[in-house]
Structures are given as structure tokens and as C-alpha cells.
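Propose amino acids for all 274 sites.
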């Protein structure tokens, strides 16, 4: 509330309205000060809301989402469980629980929660993507494919699903389809270095080093700190017979990630070759 430019009361007019206004401004400023001290972060904001509305599901869900974003998964799980205890049909809360279990490597429990979430709210794209990836890691490829395609039917621009579908195609030998998904991802996110890297790696599988080098160069330009991109570029150079340049890329990859076995082996192969 602003009082700048407000007319000054003439002599003889009642001063009560001005006093009341001043009191109101002071009270509002005091309340604002207290709220600002409580809401100095999203976590304290939602902790405050939960404290004032403990019987409402949505504050618990929002608080859980903030906690998870801050890496506090144990408390996030507690808040999501409270949310579904209050409102058992809260699909997004089930999704959050599944994502926490997924992060902890409890894949079967994650799948169960994703499936419940989608039974309650079928259009949660992230749940479709995560469920597809969980199926993929369990070797349940047809089910993974179905979830990825459903996710993209809801949101064609969901880049993570495009990338995951590309992995699935690549692992099942559908290399051109994999490249197609990675390129579609780039239409929505042109500077996504991993998509360029994955295209390059797929061209290596296709024995096309020239195309691989072109895409892996772009990946390295966008993400010079990516050991995987430098390693891939080393493989492409090695395949094209440029062993010196391949060795340089493997060395760079190992500087960035000394434990990258692929690069260790690549450097060993190329070190003494012309």
C-alpha cells in the first residue's frame, strides 16, 4: 500500500482518519515483516502453511515437493504420506512417493506407486516417463514403450521421454528410430548436449564415423566438461583412423573422469598408433 502524493488534511478537519490510516499502515508493515521472516524460502513458507492447515492435503504435497527439491527425501516421503492419508485420491502425491522410491533404488515399490498415481490421474507425463524407465530397467521393454508413447501423446515436447525412448530403440537395435527421437528432442531443446552426444554414439554403432564426429563435436562445444562426450569423440576419431586426435580426446575424458574405463581402454589402444 502506497500513500505517496496523498493530499494533506486542511486545518480544522478531523485527524482521526489519518491516525487510523497510519495505524493500518503500521499494522500491515508489521504483518508483512513477520511473513517475510517466515517466508524467507519456499521451505519455510510451506512449513508455515502446513502448521496452520495440517488437515489439508495440498499443503503437505507442496511442502513435500519443496523438501524433495532440497534433497530431504525422508521428510518429503513423510509429507506425501500425510497428503494421501488426508486425501487418498491424490495422484500427484503417489507419483512423488514413487519417484522417491525410484531414487532409492526400490524399483518395484516405485512401479506400484506410479501405477496407482496414473490410475488416479492418467495425464501425469512425468509419471508415465518414470514408469516407462522403471519398466525399461526391469527389461520390460513392451510396457516401457507403451508408457513412453502415451507420455508423448500427452506432451510431445517432453524431452526426457524422447531421450528415454531413444535409448529403448537403440538397445533394441532400432538405430534410425533412436536417432529420430534424439533429433526430435533437439527441436524442442536445440542446445541439449546429451542429445547431440547420443546421436553421435548411435552413428558409431552404425559405423558412420563422419556423422558421429559432427554430432560429438557439437556435444563437446555445448558441454566441454562432459567426459562422456569427449570419450565418444575419441571413439569416432579412432574409427576414422585418426588415432592421435582420438588419444587426445580420451586423455581429456580421463582428466574429467579418471574412472572412465572406456577412455582408459581407448587410450591404451591409440597411444602407440600413428
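Proposal:
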Amino acid at each position: 500500500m502506497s500513500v505517496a502524493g496523498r493530499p494533506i488534511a486542511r486545518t480544522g478537519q478531523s485527524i482521526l482518519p489519518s491516525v487510523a490510516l497510519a495505524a493500518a499502515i503500521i499494522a500491515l508493515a508489521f504483518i508483512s515483516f513477520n511473513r517475510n521472516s517466515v517466508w524467507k524460502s519456499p521451505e519455510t513458507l510451506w512449513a508455515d502453511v502446513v502448521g496452520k492447515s495440517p488437515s489439508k492435503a495440498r499443503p503437505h504435497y507442496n511442502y513435500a515437493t519443496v523438501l524433495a527439491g532440497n534433497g530431504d527425501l525422508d521428510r518429503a516421503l513423510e509429507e506425501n504420506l500425510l497428503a494421501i492419508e488426508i486425501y487418498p485420491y491424490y495422484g500427484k502425491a503417489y507419483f512423488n512417493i514413487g519417484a522417491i522410491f525410484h531414487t532409492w533404488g526400490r524399483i518395484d515399490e516405485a512401479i506400484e506407486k506410479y501405477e496407482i498415481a496414473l490410475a488416479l490421474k492418467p495425464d501425469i507425463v512425468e509419471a508415465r516417463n518414470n514408469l516407462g524407465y522403471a519398466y525399461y530397467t526391469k527389461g520390460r521393454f513392451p510396457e516401457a514403450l507403451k508408457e513412453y508413447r502415451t507420455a508423448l501423446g500427452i506432451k510431445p515436447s517432453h524431452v526426457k521421454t524422447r531421450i528415454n525412448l531413444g535409448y529403448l530403440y537403440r538397445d533394441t537395435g532400432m538405430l534410425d528410430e533412436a536417432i529420430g527421437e534424439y533429433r526430435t528432442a533437439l527441436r524442442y531443446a536445440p542446445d541439449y548436449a546429451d542429445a547431440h552426444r547420443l546421436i553421435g554414439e548411435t552413428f558409431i554403432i552404425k559405423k558412420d564415423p563422419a556423422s558421429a564426429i559432427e554430432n560429438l563435436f557439437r556435444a563437446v562445444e555445448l558441454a566441454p566438461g562432459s567426459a562422456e562426450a569427449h570419450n565418444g569423440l575419441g571413439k569416432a576419431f579412432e574409427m576414422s583412423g585418426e588415432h592421435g586426435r582420438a588419444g587426445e580426446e580420451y586423455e581429456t575424458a580421463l582428466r574429467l573422469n579418471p574412472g572412465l574405463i572406456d577412455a582408459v581402454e581407448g587410450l591404451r589402444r591409440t597411444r602407440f598408433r600413428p
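The two ends are 75 Å apart (CA to CA). Confidence is low (pLDDT under 50) at residues 1-35.
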